[in-house]
Amino acid sequence: MSSPEVPEWIDNELREIRAAGLFRSRRTFHPLADGRCLLEGRELINFSSNDYLNLSHDERVIAAAAAALPEMGVGTRASALVSGRTEWHAQLENRLAQFERTDEAILFPSGYAANLGIISAFANQEDTIFCDRLNHASLIDGCRLSGARLRVYRHDQLEKLKRELEKTSGDGKKIIVTDSVFSMDGSLAPLVSLCDLAEEFNATVMLDEAHATGVWGGSGRGLAEELGVEERVTVRIGTLSKAVGTMGGFVAGPCALIDWLWNRVRTQIYSTALPPSICAAACKALEIIQSEPDRRRLLHEQSTFLRRELQQRPSISVPPSSGPIIPIILKDPELTMKMAADLQESGFLVGAIRPPTVPQGTSRLRVSITCAHQRDDLKRFLKALDRSLARNVESR
Fold first, then answer.
1. Which of 117, 208, 240, 333 is the most exposed place for a label (fewest CB within 10 A)?
2. How do the domains of the chain map onto residue ranges?
3. How wide is the angle at C-alpha 132 spanned by C-alphas 239 and 106, nearest 5°?
4. Neighbouring-strand partners of residue 107
5. Residues near 275 by Cβ (< 8 Å), separated by ≥ 6?
6. Residue whose C-alpha is closest to residue 286's, from 122, 10, 19, 97
7. Do residues 216 and 225 lie in contact, with contact meaning Cβ atoms separated by under 8 Å?
8. Is 144 in contact with 295 (CB distance < 8 Å)?
């Protein structure tokens, strides 16, 4: 079998990526129940997962998907707009609207597609978007694709955002775009202050609750519920691929907003709809989230324990944050990869995060807790981390 010749510039860029310690390899991963996984044939405790409520392996969720398969088949065959919106899609939209306490909901094939499509449809060259520095790549890409004027701010320095809002004039829309929980830091957006600024300067708040849906709020609706600002946020975006344990993105809101999105967002109009079996699974997962709040309680208890223990170690930096995402800042990408390998050898899979996912000089281990992790898992992880720190950091 012959292959086309690879352009020289690709080889050159690959050499540069390897030299910078940023090369990413593909590997085969097999998820298991109870917070475990198989990686290259070895069983590990999985601290790299966003399955915060351990629902992707829940027997009830699996059974719901399995029951829909014989009737509906595997694929959806078309976009939702053409002929791909089945009764399972409609049922999930209704379930999401009930869960979020809104009029209606609309589905997207992924959270990335939701963010990219919604922002690029919402804004144009006459508008100004105010984007948090730590926003997910899908939000940033949506902002860029829109063609709007882009202003970057830091959620821990809202004085700059206020100054930018003050000096923005004209008839264009002003849109504040933010994650509720920042995926690589675990820090929370100051939603009350952001809503205050939006109301003061006639701006719109667009919120991605990807890492908050199912995790925050008395009912699990997210950080906007936790902080009491749901009615002050114009567009609330969520994902089904993290705490809900399935896949896809969604927006829940007033009828007029959902109708507008249905008619305007290209990533929804021109994408094949989610498989019906996934919709059936997500319906069951949402039911479990509402009926079993102890999953959230346990998740936060385990996260608080591990974060407190890590912050007592002077040789590493663990920024203040809340919830199941705990970053261990190591700065150097090579050191980050060494320590991730050490931890894997000790039986733990931890995300090794390097630029361009995070800014230069902030390479880190991203520890992600789920409610499946036992306290003994966390204690064993701390011992393995201490051994790696002694070998790689404290001996320097």
1. 333
2. 21-50+293-392, 59-291
3. 25
4. 250
5. 72, 74, 75, 76
6. 97
7. yes
8. no
Quick one: CA torsion of 272, 278, 279, 281, rounded to 10 degrees? 180
Cα–Cα distance measured from residue 383 to residue 261, given in angstroms and rounded to the nearest whole number: 50
Topology of domain 59-291, per CATH? Aspartate Aminotransferase; domain 2 (3.40.640)
Query: Left if phi > 0, otherwise alpha if psi is -120 to 50, otherwise beta: which for 336?
Result: alpha
Q: Is 225 within 8 Å of 212 (Cβ atoms)?
A: no
Model pLDDT for residues 338-361, shown as the tens digit of each residue: 999 999 999 999 999 999 889 899
Task: Report how far residue 102's alpha carbon sits from residue 122's, in angstroms, rounded to the nearest whole number.
Answer: 20
> Domain 21-50+293-392 is of which CATH architecture?
Alpha-Beta Complex (3.90)
Q: How far apart are the first and last CA of the chain?
A: 50
CB 179 within 8 A of CB 186: no
Nearest to 373 by CA among 41, 29, 28, 32: 32
The type of residue at 228 is G
**What's the token pair of residue 90?**
């409609």
DSSP tag of 154: B
> Could you report the per-residue pLDDT of 169-196, keeping only the tens digit for each?
888 999 999 999 999 999 999 999 999 9
d(CA 194, CA 204): 10
Please choose, from the candidates 22, 83, 136, 70, the residue with its C-alpha nearest in 3D space to the C-alpha of residue 272.
83
What stretch of H or E contains 206? strand 204-208
